[in-house]
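tool_call: predict_structure(chain=1)
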Amino acid sequence: MFRWQLELVQVPAPPFGEEPRASWLAEQFRGLGLDDVSIDAAGNVIGILKGNLKANRCILFSAHIDTVFPAHTTIQPVVDGQRLTAPGACDNGAGVAGLLAIAAAIQEAGLEPGCDVYFVGNVGEEGDGNLRGIRQIYQHAPWREKIESHLVLDGAGDSAAITQALGSQRYRVSITGPGGHSWSDAGVPNPILLLSRAISRMGTLDLPETPRTTWNVGRIEGGTSVNAIPEQAVANFDLRSTDPGELIRLDVELHRAIEDVVQEANQEFTARYTGDDRRVQFAIRKIGDRPAGRLPEGSRLLDLLYAVDRQLGLHTETRVASTDANLPLSLGVPAITLGAGGNGGGIHTRNEWYDATGRELGLRRILLLLFALAG
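tool_result:
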């Protein structure tokens, strides 16, 4: 299993560039005897463990194969005993290795689930991927209506479960103007200044602690020179909440802040420079949409997880996060995200690490839950 993980992290899988890792994973699925191994239109790798009953239901068992690291990132894995240090070693090297380990254990023990289990290494979980791999499954897979439950492996750990999906909306906002020389064209609307005003207005919002709601501006760019009024300013905004209604409110507030500062700038400029039509314009483009959702208390999936934990002497801590489970939870499909055992840290840095010590306990938890779900 550690060998799989070491091989995996050496195959680059940047956002929208997961093809080499998908090919590698498809080869592993075939080697483990999964049926009908294929790569779909989005780039997801799919293999089927056939059930022993002809039931019109299936379990989706997935782990994302993409990383946050851009193409051409230097990857030089360092192995120290049970510890692997490399970009993506834990997120989601641990999850994909866990997927393979469960498939291998099932085949080795000759186990047969009561329904088909679809093993999926999906693309598009990180960054601007916008869950495109899981969206492909739930929108286009011919077997999507059969999905009874969805089990997601993401990262390390054996005592937490993500049961509440943190919703997010992401926007790329641009403000454009005529630009000009900082001296001779002084007074022309400055897109950077206007964008700053809009951000400042967002900063005055009174956000609730419950349901927890946040916003962030994560990137700003624009301008060409210190003595030039820029023609454009661009910023990326991230809006998050556990409540869909609060997400809608944040969405409205962002649009209002941008629209207001642009309208005010145009009114002021027209009043000062009669007849000059060099107006400011804006564009707001959605670049990410992760729906919120929740696994209800008392759901069969959660009850089975608690039963497995009692068997193994574990105590599950339920958490809120944004994962591939967001989409099925928003659609009413019971879904949960678990770690694949072991421990990890430095997530999304080049010094990311994973320690496989004690990983077997987490894998037992996953295997028992999978067969409890499948029957």
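agent: The chain has nine helices and 19 strands. Proceeding to next step.
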